[in-house]
């Protein structure tokens, strides 16, 4: 397990913003901040001045990273971009929409619930959370005088689900959203689920393995994601599908439990700590200085690749933010020396793939140990490609072929200090 102190954020949320959603952002952001989300990666498909103005206080508080991503079919590329670019910046990453609210059924934060469930199995890389669908409460038009959570308090039955069939779009609470360790994400192909390196997988709140976008039977005892379709007018402005609205507009049961959770979390909320240079340097020193000693036994490095790659990333951030502070460069090189030693430990397949996928920013660094890392990774890639060829796993084979080309390209260009 990686030391929490090495991450800029404990839990981040990734959201894809569509047109007309700006007015819902303050309630959604404030709720999730109180629930333990420390940072947001917002990808805006229809950027406007209104959205930027509403987000200004959160930007000034360094609680968001904002990206304009106009164009069609951009949600999945946005999710994959976040998972790739920020995987070492945040311990957990949740992928949710602005009409969805993650709701733990205790007073715990979202990350605390994820810790409790994922700690049971070291192979678990993500928690998938069933949704609960809230209907319109009979409201035909928008009412901006109140928030979404207060306006809509009736939902479908807990286990409601319409299975896909010819001419029938699937709907219901079997759908999940994902809270993941982003370092082990291989790729994301739909808004509900991520795929992980072999040996890592997602689990539901009972610890059962989940392999796709749905979890059946629906679980709602520990954590859910409340999905609000809102009024007919609001739904139609977003989706334009009357038939689908009528399918989702279930108001069978009263459920306002999220109000109590919101109130409890608001009362105890304290903003996350700001970026503290000395705290981060102190943490790196505590982890890296004992590890770089020549007398450290090799088995010390078993299972620690993820931690040392995270150290490398944090040291790189410190080096870039404070270029006159030589500790950043020293810690980055120390982390890479530790990464190199993990290559001779008992690495799992998932760790090996994590290493290979972490290469691009490492190969450009000006330390002699980088060439040792490169040579080791060439050996890893060739070995895995041979295994993949025998098993006809051509998708991953092609991906690794690209990495092999990258490693070869850097063979004669390794910068030296």
Please name the defining characteristics of this protein:
417 residues; alpha/beta; Spore Coat Polysaccharide Biosynthesis Protein SpsA, Chain A; 2 domains; ten-stranded mixed β-sheet
Your description of this structure?
This protein starts with 8 loop residues before the first strand and ends in an 8-residue tail after the last helix. With 417 residues, it is of the alpha/beta class. The strands form four sheets. Strands 1, 2, 3, 4, 5, 6, 10, 13, 14 and 15 form a ten-stranded mixed beta sheet that branches. Helix content is 41%, strand content 18%. It has helices at 25-34, 49-60, 75-85, 110-118, 148-151, 232-239, 242-248, 257-268, 277-291, 305-321, 327-342, 349-357, 359-363, 369-390, 394-409, and strands spanning 9-17, 39-44, 64-68, 90-95, 100-104, 124-134, 154-155, 161-162, 171-172, 176-180, 185-190, 193-196, 201-203, 209-210, 223-228, 253-254. Helix 10 runs antiparallel to helix 11, helix 11 runs parallel beside helix 14 (369-390) and helix 14 packs antiparallel against helix 15 (394-409). It folds into two domains: 4-268, Spore Coat Polysaccharide Biosynthesis Protein SpsA, Chain A, CATH 3.90.550; 277-409. The protein is built from 15 helices and 16 strands.
For the sheet with most strands, the description reads: 10 strands, mixed
Give the helix proportion (percent range).
40-55%
What is the SS-derived class?
alpha/beta
Distance between the termini: 32 Å
Q: Please tell me how large the radius of gyration is.
A: 23 Å
The level 1 CATH classification of the largest domain is Alpha Beta
Taking pLDDT < 50 over at least 5 consecutive residues as the criterion, the unreliable ranges are none
């Amino acid at each position: 397990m990686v030391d929490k102190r090495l991450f800029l954020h404990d839990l981040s949320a990734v959201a894809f913003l569509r047109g007309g959603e700006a007015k819902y952002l303050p309630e959604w952001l404030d709720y999730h901040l109180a629930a333990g989300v420390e940072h947001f990666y917002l990808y805006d498909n229809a950027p406007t001045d209104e959205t930027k103005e509403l987000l200004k206080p959160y930007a000034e508080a360094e609680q968001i990273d904002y990206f304009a991503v106009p164009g069609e079919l951009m949600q999945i590329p946005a999710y994959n971009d976040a998972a790739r670019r920020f995987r070492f910046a945040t311990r957990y990453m949740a992928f949710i929409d602005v009409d969805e609210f993650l709701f733990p059924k205790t007073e715990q934060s979202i990350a605390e619930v994820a810790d409790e469930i994922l700690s049971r199995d070291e192979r678990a890389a993500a928690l998938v959370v069933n949704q609960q669908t809230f209907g319109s409460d009979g409201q035909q038009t928008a009412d901006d005088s109140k928030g979404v959570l207060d306006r809509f308090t009736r939902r479908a039955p807990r286990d409601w689900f319409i299975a896909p069939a010819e001419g029938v779009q699937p709907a219901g609470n079997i759908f999940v959203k994902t809270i993941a360790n982003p370092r082990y994400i291989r790729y994301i192909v739909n808004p509900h689920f991520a795929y992980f390196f072999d040996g890592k997988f997602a689990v539901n709140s009972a610890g059962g393995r989940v392999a796709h976008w749905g979890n059946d039977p629906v679980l709602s005892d520990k954590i859910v994601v409340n999905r609000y379709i809102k009024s007919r007018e609001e739904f139609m402005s977003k989706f334009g599908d009357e038939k689908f609205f009528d399918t989702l507009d279930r108001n069978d049961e009263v459920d306002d439990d999220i109000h109590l959770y919101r109130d409890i979390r608001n009362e105890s909320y304290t903003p996350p700590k700001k970026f503290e240079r000395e705290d981060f340097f102190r943490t790196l020193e505590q982890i890296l200085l004992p590890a770089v000693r020549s007398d450290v036994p090799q088995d010390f490095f078993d299972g620690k690749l993820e931690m040392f790659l995270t150290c490398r990333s944090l040291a790189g951030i410190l080096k870039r933010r404070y270029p006159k502070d030589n500790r950043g460069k020293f810690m980055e090189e120390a982390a890479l020396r530790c990464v190199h030693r993990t290559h001779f430990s008992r690495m799992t397949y998932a760790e090996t793939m994590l290493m290979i996928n972490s290469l691009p920013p490492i190969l450009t660094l000006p330390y002699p140990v980088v060439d040792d890392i490169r040579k080791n990774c060439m050996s890893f890639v060739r070995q895995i490609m041979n295994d993949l060829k025998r098993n006809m796993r051509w998708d991953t084979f092609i991906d690794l072929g690209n990495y092999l080309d990258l490693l070869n390209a850097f063979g004669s260009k390794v910068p030296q200090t």
